[in-house]
From TrEMBL, chain A:
Biological process according to GO: hydrogen peroxide catabolic process
Alphabetical UniProt keywords: Heme, Iron, Metal-binding, Oxygen transport, Transport
GO molecular function (one): peroxidase activity
SUPFAM superfamilies attached to this UniProt entry: Globin-like
Domain Globin: 3-147
Organism: Hucho hucho (huchen)
Identification of the protein by name: Globin domain-containing protein
Automatic annotation (TrEMBL), chain B:
UniProt key word Secreted: no
UniProt organism field: Hucho hucho (huchen)
Similarity comment: Belongs to the globin family.
One GO process term, biological-process aspect: hydrogen peroxide catabolic process
Name under which the protein is recorded: Hemoglobin, alpha adult 2
Annotated keywords: Heme, Iron, Metal-binding, Oxygen transport, Transport
Source taxon at top rank: Eukaryota
Residue span, Globin domain: 54-195
Length: 147, 195
């Protein structure tokens, strides 16, 4: 499906190995819920998401952020097979959770911003370009079972 | 979606009618208009069509405060954001085919990044009337440069990435949402004249 050069594969692995899933996942998901408040519609069972402080401190939001990054971890370790990895996740989000697939792109962009904040200048334009290509593929895979 | 306020001459009279500290401005305007047996006299009220997701007073003050903090580094942020856009979204290079060097940190990228951030800084100054304040720039982008407005969102994203890198503690989620809204409103104002 997607062609990855060796340089791209090693760039993405090098970025990911420095990302603490347990920190970045919760930060990214919380930021999505704050910056794009209409996304809160999917998390009505998560308890208090009424203010930025409530969102940042909400344990269910944090837990789900970790789950999302866990799935990304699988993709990084199987870059030749991303479509297959996300097949059942895509079906679940399409047919059971009814999540608008545009939200995957939104989450990917916010995750990129959170990672950039952590890495600082080390997140060079070239690394950003490669990382965003990877995000684009993951987002496409997540949307692949929507019809 | 419409909001309205009384024209200045009538705001004084509204205050005579009702204790304005007990009612919100809109509520006391409604009381005033009802007292005058009017509901929608255009000579008394200014009707403002609210654009989608318009900037609140809080958004504007957050943006102004943040822009004050970053103003010393504005040139650097502009140059870097432009360089990131050209690298991560290569289709945007089509607008700069007349430059010798499109790599991040090159002279034309630095110069133009600085120009862009300067214009954005000016937009912060006219944040209460972005469409009016950006009218000339909208003409330029619409008729001369003919930049597809979809690219404004792409540049905005790269500005946010650059801000996150240079101001990781200041670029909180609350600042992020206000700046994202501001850049979206700015992009809409820039696209205002397109058709």
């Amino acid at each position: 499906m997607v062609e990855w050069t060796d340089a791209e594969k090693s760039t993405i692995s090098a970025v990911w190995v420095k990302v603490d899933i347990n920190e970045v996942g919760p930060l990214a998901l919380a930021r999505v819920l704050i910056v794009y408040p209409w996304t809160q519609r999917y998390f009505s069972s998560f308890g208090d998401v009424s203010t930025p402080a409530a969102i940042m401190g909400n344990p269910k939001v944090a837990a789900h952020g970790k789950v999302v990054c866990g799935a990304l971890d699988k993709a990084v370790k199987n870059m030749g097979n991303i479509l297959a990895i996300y097949k059942s996740l895509s079906e679940t989000h399409a047919n059971k959770l009814f999540v608008d697939p545009d939200n995957f792109r939104v989450l990917a962009d916010v995750l990129t911003i959170v990672i950039a904040a952590k890495f600082g200048a080390a997140f060079t334009p070239e690394i950003q370009a490669t990382w965003q290509k990877f995000m684009k593929v993951v987002v496409a895979a997540m949307g692949s079972r929507y019809f | 979606m419409y909001s309205f306020k009384l024209k200045p001459a009538h705001r004084q009279k509204r205050h005579l009618l009702c204790d304005h500290t007990a009612l919100s401005p809109s509520a006391s305007a409604v009381v005033y208009l009802t007292h005058r047996r009017l509901t929608s006299r255009q000579d008394l009220i200014q009707v403002n069509q609210r654009s989608k997701m318009s900037l609140t007073a809080k958004d504007k003050s957050v943006v102004k405060a943040f822009w004050g903090k970053i103003s010393g580094k504005a040139d650097v942020v502009g140059a870097e954001a432009l360089g990131r856009m050209l690298t991560a979204y290569p289709q945007t290079k089509t607008y700069f085919s007349h430059w010798a060097d499109l790599s991040p940190g090159s002279a034309p990228v630095k110069k133009h990044g600085s120009t862009i951030m300067g214009a954005i800084g000016n937009a912060v100054g006219v944040i209460d009337d972005l469409v009016g304040g950006l009218s000339a720039l909208s003409d330029l982008h619409a008729f001369k440069l003919r930049v597809d407005p979809g690219n404004f969102k792409i540049l905005s994203h790269n500005i946010l990435v650059t801000l996150a890198i240079h101001f990781p503690t200041d670029f909180t989620p609350e600042v992020h949402v206000a700046v994202d809204k501001f850049l979206a409103a700015l992009s809409a104002a820039l696209a205002d004249k397109y058709r």
